[in-house]
Amino acid sequence: MTTMLQDIVVKRNVPTNQYTPKDFKVDIDVRWCAGCGGYSILSQVQRIMPELGIPREKIVFVSGIGCSSRFPYYVNVYGFHSIHGRALAVASGLKIARPDLSVWIATGDGDCMSIGGNHFIHACRRNVDINVLMFNNEVYSLTKGQYSPTSQPGQKTKTSPFGVVDDPFNPASLALGAGATFVARGYDRDPKMLQYLFERAAAHKGISFVEIYANCVIFNDGAFDKYTEKEYRDDTTVWLEDGKPLIFGKNRDKGIILDGFTPVVVSFEDGNYSPNDVIVHNEKDSTLAFILANMTYNPNVPRPIGVFQSIEKPSYEEKVENQIEEVTKKLGEGDINHLMCGEDFWTID
Amino acid sequence: MSKKVEHLDKVTIRFAGDSGDGMQLVGTQFSNTAGTVGNSVNTFPDYPSEIRAPEGTLYGVSAYQIHFGSKKVNTIGDKIDVLVCMNASSLKVNLPNVREKGIIIANTAGFGEKNLKLAKYETNPLDNGSLSKYQLIKINMSEMMKQELADLGISPKAVERTKNIFALGFVYWLFNRPLDLTEKWLKEKFANKPQILEANLRALRAGYNYGATRQEMIVQYNVHHADLPKGTYRNITGNEACAIGLVAAATKAKLPLFLGSYPITPATEILHFISGYKQFGVKVLQAEDEIAGICSAIGASYGGYLAATTTSGPGLSLKVEALGLAVILELPLVVIDVQRAGPSTGLPTKPEQSDLNIAYYGRHGEAPIPIVAASGAADCFAMTIEAARIALKYMTPVILLSDGYMAQGTEPWRIPDMNELPDLTVNFATDPETFKPYRRDPSTLARMWAVPGTPNLEHRIGGLEKEDITGLVSHDPLNHQKMVELRQKKIDGIANDIPLAEVEGEQSGDLLVVAWGSVYGPVKTAFDELREQGHKISYTHLKYIRPFPKNLGDILSRFERIVVPEMNMGQLADLLQSKFLRPVLRINKIQGMPFKAKEIEIKLLELLNNKGDK
User: Fold this and answer.
1) B interface mutation test: which of A98, A115, A129 has the most B CBs within 10 A?
2) Are B270 and B210 in a shared domain?
3) Residue in A closest to B327 by C-alpha
């Protein structure tokens, strides 16, 4: 008997205890360098997958080219390793065709922001319900160490032996500017944080963009130490939590206030400011999200980590289906014979 | 007053005017009416690449040519029998193609001082006797419409816009054609604008009546209906035939249709049409670029859809990397390339057949892709079905080559019954016991198609070389050779599943014409003419280019000489030479214009008269 596509496109949920992380592991060697940030990301993805209540066969990982893009080979779900920069284009077609699937992207700063930049901004704009995990190591690794669109000014790489002269993209600002509805940032060193962000991304309807600082031990080792290592991170980053004030510091003695539209660090020690004066994060406030995202390369403020924005908007594939439904209701289901004949036909007997 | 009626077998009419004069519209109306009364029709719109070039200029002339007859017409007509020119520039541009004693219908309002200057005429050609070789009919259409519509109180601009319909009405009278089809069309188009509708209906009637009551003697012509095979017909452009073909193919495959595409002349209309087919459940993505067009289609194909992308040369260039991906993924995909004159932006609105090389060779690595080529507007439907059939059955991308000529020209299409079309039902893999991503059907060598959502068939595919059968990433040297050979063998094997090539005329002998694509029309016309004159000549038209029909080598070997007329520098000729080790003669036209039948006839006659030419 022939299996029709509609037999496969049935929605079903599974209990969250049906799978364990092991069910999402593949029996092949992971071929990333020892110490690569990718390992942590992979583990956290495999850890949260059983919690999603989605049957394994309904999950698809799509990737482009780069170290991060080997990811689909390492997860025991459907996987599609495409070509450089095109993961979001492939995934958009897949998700529009098959809204029943949970579609994920593993990509890197080169794949997503450089060669795939156009697809990235348009997928954000359309709000296709795809979860984009961008491993940002601020360097091209698979091609062995050239600067990327997120490399920092002055960074020395094989193609910038005297230092990078380009200005980098700020991925969170780019995503927000392009209209992404869920934008977050995390880092490889904190498994719990990544699990939280991935679960949030999975739960969000519409595009979810998670930038993950991922250490490249070979070509850009320690690039994020300042923000990810225990001895610094309390003072160099601020955790964004919905409804909570932006307080940071080892002793939680500093906060961020707005001077006009400019975020400024204040200390609670001298008595001029108290925690009540600082910005309270609101994930639904797009204006605030832009301001917070723009703190990224500002040396005078800590680097924001967490969810910048999470707003609800109808997803693209849903709008496509709704339109088909509306048009079909209005015009009736398409009749192929009528379409072929058109309005002006004649018969020769 | 007596009117003389003459019978004609074939007539070529060209409506020409300014880009904004509505020439495409009246041309389409005339060809629909001619088709409806049973004529054989072939048409071609010819317009500048600017949307509205400056008014009245030579380069802003837009035209629509219709060749219709009581005998089968295969071309748009070499010479113009009736030229309708709305202004001086449109006369100047088209006059060289009007046959002697042909009819020129001129709107005198378009021959004012400014128009003459723009057309670079020193004196008015309508008055200086320079057109004495032709039958000149001068009508001040603008003035007539002004009087006709004086009581309607519509703007002078709206009045001026009805002059094309007046011209159409007059031509309907000239060829004794009914007005009802155009009246019905106007009523639908202007259903919400009663005044504009009234103005246009009056214009149509006024044009018709002007002919009927004109004082000077004019001959009225009659073109009997053609002897076409029984069936239901309509006029169709190649682009619409492709669009409908995709929907019909999806219906026969019992799959939903996905089109990922980016607008590009002259392929855009396929995207337009399919965007209007939402009631068929079709999903369309107007992508951000050509690459996203094809990549989204590949994504949808992965999801179990009949997926397609449509483009023209520059777009095909951009899609090349993704085509290679589709080859190694072995997923079905229909790629429709409506060829235009290149390289680069080239002549974007003009046809050429110069994408055969990129379709055949345009990928890195060993990446064979089947190529089929439609022979004309109506054939675009059948070849779209064929492209989908091959793609689905063999799990491969397929390129269908159309061109700007057949894409926008129309001919009558005998509408097939859905039951006549091949069954395209696919078998998705569902059994975990037998499933391996690259396990192949022994007869077709197509791999299994398992779509996401199928329990226990989770697997990974991608652009990295895969191990035979298991589909695991493999860098093994021998495996790579094996996979390259398997992919090639699969495509070569399609030769067993396509019709044999046929030879018209002698089955062996001196001269065989081999052609592909829209040159069919002029080649067939020239061929028929030469046969009628008693020449021994044969003709094979190819619709399958990769693989070639398996009897093609045998056919070629039966002839002393082979000649290929094509709208390029000899891309098919080169292929035939390299594949069959035969010298191939060429007839090439690379002017952004289709061949004229006469041009081909003359070249073939030269060959026939000089047997030593090899």
Assistant:
1) A98
2) no
3) A82
Candidates A8, A96, A349; nearest CB to B300: A96
Nearest chain A CA: its distance from B267 CA (Å): 19
Mean pLDDT of B161-176: 96
Yes or no, beta carbons of B298 and A90 under 8 Å apart: yes
User: Do residue A92 and residue B463 have CB atoms under 8 angstroms apart?
Assistant: no
Residue B614 has pLDDT above 70, yes or no: no
| Beta-ladder partners of A329 | none
Would you list the DSSP string of A288-317? HHHHHHTTTT-TTSPEEEEEEEE-----HH
B346 and B384 co-located in one domain: yes
Task: Tell me the chain A residues in contact with residue B37 when contact means C-beta distances shorter than 8 Å.
Answer: 346
Question: pLDDT band at B527, cuts 50/70/90?
Answer: very high
Range of the domain at B530: 504-609
- Side-chain half-sphere CA neighbours of B176 within 13 A: 15
Of A8, A93, A328, the CB nearest to B296: A93
Q: Whole-model pTM?
A: 0.94
d(CA B573, CA B568): 10
Cα–Cα distance measured from residue B225 to residue B256, given in angstroms and rounded to the nearest whole number? 40
Q: Is the ipTM of this complex over 0.95?
A: yes
Interface membership of B461 toward A (CB under 8 Å) = yes
Q: Are residues B412 and B343 in the same domain?
A: yes
Work out the minimum CA distance from A26 to partner chain B, whole angstroms. 10
pLDDT at B3: 62
Q: Does B300 touch chain A (CB under 8 A)?
A: yes
Mean pLDDT in chain A? 96
**Cβ distance of A5 and B451 shorter than 8 Å:** yes
Domain count for chain B: 3
Q: How many CB atoms lie within 10 A of CB B610?
A: 9
Query: How far apart, in whole angstroms, are the C-alpha atoms of residue A151 and residue A136?
Result: 9
Residue B495 lies in a domain: no
- The predicted-structure confidence for B271-307, as pLDDT tens digits, reads as follows 999 999 999 999 999 999 999 999 999 999 999 999 9
B285, B418, B459: residue with CB nearest A336:
B418
Instruction: Say how far apart CA A251 and CA A267 lie, in whole Å.
Output: 11
Preferred mutation among A31, A67, A80 to probe B, highest tally of B CBs within 10 A: A80
Is B337 found in the same domain as B202? Answer: no
Distances, alpha carbon B3 to alpha carbons B176, B210, B221, B293, in Å: 12, 13, 10, 58
Residue A107's domain is classified under what CATH number? Answer: 3.40.50.970
B280 and A334 in contact by Cβ < 8 A? yes
* B194-216: pLDDT as tens digits: 999 999 999 999 999 999 888 77
What are the b/e assignments for B271-280, b being 16+ CB within 10 Å? Answer: bebbeebbbb
Query: Which residues in chain A have Cβ-Cβ distances shorter than 8 Å to B247?
Result: 334, 336, 339
Question: Whose CA is closest to A55, among A106, A102, A103?
Answer: A102
Which B-chain residues 400-459 have CB contacts (< 8 A) with chain A? Answer: 415-416, 418, 425-428, 430, 451-459
Question: Nearest residue on chain B to A343, judged by CA atoms?
Answer: B234
Dihedral sign (CA A85, A191, A73, A13): negative
Residue B270 has pLDDT above 60, yes or no: yes
**Residues B36, A76: Cα–Cα separation, whole Å:** 60
Distance from CA of B274 to the nearest CA of A (A): 11
Residue A12 lies in a domain: no
CB A59 within 8 A of CB B459: no
CB under 8 A, 24+ apart: contacts of A237-241: A237/A302, A237/A303, A237/A304, A237/A305, A238/A301, A238/A302, A238/A303, A238/A304, A238/A305, A239/A305, A239/A306, A240/A281, A240/A283, A240/A292, A240/A304, A240/A305, A240/A306, A240/A307, A240/A308, A241/A281, A241/A306
